[in-house]
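Regression report. Comparing outputs from two consecutive submissions.

Submission 1:
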Amino acid sequence: MKGYTYNMITEPTRADIDALRNAVKPYYTEKRYAHALSVEEEAARLGEILLPHRTGALRAAALLHDITKKYDFQKQLQYCADFGIILKEPVSPEVLHAKTGAGAAERDFPEFAHEDVINAIRYHTTGRWGMTVFEAVIFLSDYIEPSRTHEKCIALRNELYGKLRCADTAAEREKAFDRAVLCALDNTISYLMHKKAVIDIETVEARNYYLSQRNCI
């Protein structure tokens, strides 16, 4: 896809993913594990359309994306110290698990710790300026996976797949996807503003990137 870069890696096999699916289960609560499985399937579905040669790695990133989500704020801060993560002020507690999850994935699952996978985990809650298509697939899959019940998540999912079904060219599919990512960023920022919560600067930068650099208008 034009404008995106990613690293070529050896794709995990089906057996690799089956083993990973079992290995990550202890890292999750029952509800969170179900979410991870749902993100996996969503990422694979989008991957077949956008990055058909990367679906194995996308599945791995999805299965690993929330492996530190269950820990409280103090534990997240401890992980940040352990992994040498430098935090920007002000700290948004809701996004720490993405940063610590990337560190935990590198430590505990080195066989899957390719740059694309780790970055997709690291930025799955915030996005970032220059987000790759690989990262964006995980970001959006986390937002629209079928177990999400918020009306905006459901509406965006339905709208995206409706447009993808009607798209005749790769450029049209790319535009539909980019617009969906921008919409998810807009919705996230609106939600955080309504809560009067800290908005991570990387989320703002990701939105600006999609507005100014991608084919979203």
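Submission 2:
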Amino acid sequence: MRLLCLFASFCLLALPCSLNAQPDVFHVPFSFVAFDSDFPAGDYIVKAQTHNLKLALAGDPRSLKCLSAQPGRAMEFSGLNTMVFEKIGNLYVLREYRIGALGAVRALPLSKSRREVVSSYIARGYRPEPVLIAAGL
């Protein structure tokens, strides 16, 4: 009985790790920026870790980029992993990666030069609009 309880406890502790163990595939129909990198439109494989986010074009492992990510605000459990962009004029900026099963958010900061570009769009009257893309859709 003690062994069974120990095994059940281990399974419960390992559950959050296994929920995000498989990378997600997202169809992103537009080019975008994240931190200091440009990304073309395409299908992306995304893997979230504690302090970074790994993005790669599906079928092209050479395109792998590792982006610094910070824990963001908590959210409700939705079951869907989601990439959150801001559309500012014709510029798309990857801002967050939401891990629906865990209720966790990984925020993606921009480099100083990218923040200046975003500021110039806003100064010209463009306002950020959220664009959400869920995995597998």
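Expected: both submissions complete independently.
Actual: both completed, but the second showed a warning that disappeared on reload.
Relevant detail on submission 2: The chain has one domain: 23-134.
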